[in-house]
Amino acid sequence: MKITKDLYQGSLALLTDFYQLTMAYAYWKAGKGEEEAVFNLFFRKHPFQGGFTVAAGLEYVVDYCRNFHFEKKDIEYLAGMKAPDGSPQFEKGFLDYLENLRFSCDIDAVEEGTVVFPNAPILRVKGPLIQCQLLETPLLNILNFQTLIATKAARITLAAKGEPVLEFGLRRAQGIDGALAASRAAYIGGCTSTSNVMAGKLFGIPVSGTHAHSWIMSFESELEAFEAYADAFPDQCVFLVDTYDTLQGIKNAIKVGEILRSKGKEMVGIRIDSGDLAYFSNQAREMLDGAGFPNAKIVASNDLDEYIIASLKSQEASINVWGVGTKLVTAFDQPALGAVYKLSAIRTEEGEWQPKIKVSQQTLKINIPGIHNVRRYYSQGKAVADMIFLEDQEVNPRGTVIIDPLDPTRRKRIMPAFYQGEDLLKPIFKDGKVIYSCPPIEKIRQRTKDQLGSFDKTHKRLVNPHIYPVGLEENLHHLRMDLVLKAKKFEDENE
User: Which tens digits make up the pLDDT trace of 195-230?
Assistant: First the structure.
């Protein structure tokens, strides 16, 4: 499915920050536009103070880049821009360059559903400097949000301990685009269905839903409303029982359930959307079981998140299905991932790759130079460590040391010969052509489940998770430190 074509009927090349275009123009003016460069997209901290992050959004990236070009109407818009002195913002030669530009970059990325960690690239772009620069904002927009929501969904589904989690967030999401992307990412993260019918159509996600309080209120009595709903949907009745009195609502649901059973049908369950969910779910379970409906599901909603679900679990609430909306699709407790996109290498006139470093007073903001990949090591199917390494250097199979990029005293010795290794960055585009086939969303969702299953439970704790070891291979660590010291020496000499 082509997401951009379906939603926007064309290229989204202008979905960028203005400074990307001004830099592109300046590169063009300086004759640097066709220089080859490498940029890495990565994040610096796990969201939600967690111990893992789930990558999502790659299919959007593929569609965006496949359709990347400046249309005539885009060029006309840019031609109408004025500089402060009233002259055209961009020369005609540059606009002609943009109009004739065709995407020609290489992109390597982790597959959707992969568990990823701070400072390790989740996407790498190699190609002409102007093209790489113009991709920064849209790639960050896509991957930041979907990765954030997929991670939140994974945390929520882990808290639910295998019970279905329904995504109900459309009405509270950040606009139409946010709602669609959130539904997709939530499903990748582990939700079993969405209430968003458009997302169901576009992405093939199962849709689900019951009825609202307004349905009940439109009838003279709750019992009459339940009976009418059962008449309309005899095979999928989940009754919302808390419009007036929750316990009486459960009794009315049981009465209609008995009518359905007399017709050879079964009530699916009830939904509770307010009040003390632990108390009412336990009361409902007792009443349903006593009336001969032990298989009726109890669905709970009402501003749920992973912490509330975990609390309800600890209270032994009798809830079988969880409906989660606002706090999932808005990433309520952390509204942004904060991934960044940094230049890591430039090809010189001699054809050699020159690593690039950004130095900062904050160690967190010093990037990793060179062209590198991430290798995950497994032992008997369990992830033991991730190594960030230079692609043009061999890793000693007899042993190497990985060094935490933020704290060089944190080190771990890796014996590659004793582990199974997997390089996480996969080829997606080569010379601007797609060479990767995006899997069906069901397979992406299963990958998330399999990936999470390969990590120890201590890394998946909601609070104070154990830190999974991720580090720079020692040669890359030394390159980075040499470049930092060289840059600082240059700064000192020029003060």
Answer: 999 999 999 999 999 999 999 999 999 999 999 999
In a domain, 164, yes or no: yes
Domain membership flag for residue 324: yes
Cα–Cα distances in angstroms (integers) from residue 409 to residues 71, 314, 402, 485, 493, in the given order: 52, 38, 11, 18, 29
CATH code: domain of residue 201: 3.20.20.70
- Residue 179 contacts residue 196 (beta carbons within 8 Å): yes
pLDDT at 363: 82
Residue 366, domain member (yes or no): no
Residue range 19-75, pLDDT digits in tens: 999 999 999 999 999 999 999 999 999 999 999 999 999 999 999 999 999 999 999
DSSP string of 249-295, one letter each residue: HHHHHHHHHHHHHHTT----EEEE-SS-HHHHHHHHHHHHHHTT-TT
Domain count, the chain: 1
Q: CB–CB of 157/191 below 8 Å?
A: yes
Q: Is residue 353 part of a domain?
A: no
Q: Which domain holds residue 278?
A: 158-329
